[in-house]
Amino acid sequence: MAQVLPAERELRRVIGDGEGTPDREVEGLAERDLLELHRSMVLLRTYDERSVVYHRQGRIGTYAIFWNHEAMQAGSAYALDDDDWIFPSYRESAIGLLRGIPAATILSWWRGHPAGWWNPADYNVASICVPIATHVPHAAGLAWGKKLRGEPTVAIAYFGDGATSEGAFHEGANFAGVMRAPLVLFCNNNGWAISTPVSEQTRAEALADKAVGYGMPGIRVDGGDVLAVFEATREAVERARAGEGPTLIEAVSYRAAPHATADDPSAYIDLARVEEERRNECVGRYEAYLRRLGVLSDEQAEAARAEAADLMRAGIAAAEAEADADVSLVFEHALAEPPASFGADLAELRRVLGGGVG
Ligand SMILES: Cc1ncc(C[n+]2csc(CCOP(=O)(O)OP(=O)(O)O)c2C)c(N)n1
Ligand SMILES: [Mg+2]
Predict the structure, then answer these.
(1) Alpha helix locations (H) across 226-297?
(2) Which amino acids are annotated catalytic?
(3) What is the pTM for the complete model shown?
(4) Sign (positive/negative) of CA torsion 142, 143, 144, 145?
(5) Residue nearest ligand 1's atom 11 by CA
(6) Atom 21, ligand 1: which residue's CA is nearest?
(7) φ, ψ dihedrals at 13, nearest 5°
């Protein structure tokens, strides 16, 4: 029987502050790994910052900003094998970049274009989930199915603090616990569910405490510390692969950007806290760590940024080069028996939309 640990109160950390708090090193990570993690974080940061610009230019639709969530995404994804399955929420929309999904595909998703969908089996990355927590049972089911087939695959489901109040989260977590499914439940606790603070979300002292009720370990980790996230996820993945079942990871941060491009958090958020978080953002923290270790040079940092910027330029160009989709696609598979008026309605819709759209 796996031991059920009480959720740890203290946040696990690897990266120190360059002053009183010392740096640690993660066993098994070579210099090459440290730089690969850095490239992944820079890629995600660049994707995010460019996307906000593209949104303001009217080139993509509403966009869920993940600025300062890069450590959680890159650190956890690096602990997976390519055969392991990723179930992202909208906050992790671009995590597929780390599995080779083209930037154009993800940008097309935010443009509401059908080129923004992919076959999940091509990358072992499920569709981006917008309904809160509904992908948690899917991930639990996939993980259990892989176990039944005798495959060593692990699944990871990403969701927010608010998602832990949803029925689907509890159903998925309980199912995974009962079936000892090889699942990692990765909660990005950024302190907010749009304008609802985590203090109004739960009376639990820590979200990781919820793990105990499902008979699985709960781990709390500093969500701005990419190496601590990596280490905690690796531990959870090893448990899962060894047949010991799921783990709940609570990665703690504070949302340093609006919920999405349509949100104005100044109405509810603690702006001083946001400032503090922005000063201590995760890419800069990791770069400072790598420099203290003597691993990252200015040239390498610049090369990572230039590579990511090129990828985004090519990505938006390719997304914008896609021909407009035929408007009838909206109704495809929606109506088993279209009403008699359907043909005329569609013709009217084409007329209203005018030229350019199918
Ligand atoms: C089932 C469902 N209910 C409500 C919403 C509207 N909604 C979109 S984001 C959000 C907040 C989610 O917060 P959290 O789980 O903390 O994730 P975060 O956005 O902070 O990453 C809500 C309520 C939704 N998308 N799905
Ligand atoms: Mg949240």
Answers:
(1) 226-241, 271-279, 282-293
(2) 255, 259, 268
(3) 0.95
(4) positive
(5) 193
(6) 160
(7) -140, 150
162 CA distance to ligand 1 middle (Å): 6
Relative to the alpha carbon of 260, which ligand is closest?
1
Q: Is the C-beta atom of 190 inside 6 A of ligand 1? A: yes
Instruction: Give Cα 325 distance to the centre of its chain.
Output: 28
* HEC readout, 37-84: HHHHHHHHHHHHHHHHHHHHCCCCCCCCCCCCCHHHHHHHHHCCCCCC
Mean pLDDT of the chain: 95
pLDDT at 25: 97
Tokens describing residue 277: 């978080």
Q: Is the pLDDT of residue 356 over 60?
A: no
In this prediction, residue 2 carries a pLDDT of: 47
Which of 133, 41, 103, 24 has the alpha carbon at shortest distance from 78?
41
Q: Label residue 150 exposed, middle or buried (CB < 10 Å: 0-12, 13-18, 19+).
A: exposed
Q: How far apart are CA 2 and CA 216, in angstroms?
A: 8
CA distance 43 to 98: 9
**Ligand 1 centroid to residue 289 C-alpha, Å:** 33
Asked whether 192 lines ligand 1 (CB < 6 A), one says yes
For the chain, report the end-to-end CA distance as a whole number of angstroms. Answer: 59
Q: Which is nearest to 25 in space by CA: 36, 13, 35, 37?
A: 13
Ligand 1 atom with the smallest distance to the CA of 255 is 20
Q: Is the CB of 188 under 6 A from ligand 1?
A: yes
Judged on CB neighbours under 10 Å (0-12, 13-18, 19+), 167 is exposed
Rounded (5°) CA angle 329-332-337: 145
Scan for tokens 């597929």, then name that residue: 96
Pocket residue to mutate for ligand 1, from 95, 132, 170, 186, most atoms within 8 A of Cβ: 132
Q: Which two tokens stand for residue 127?
A: 């569709």
- Expressed in angstroms and rounded, the spacing between residue 159 Cα and the centre of ligand 2 is 8
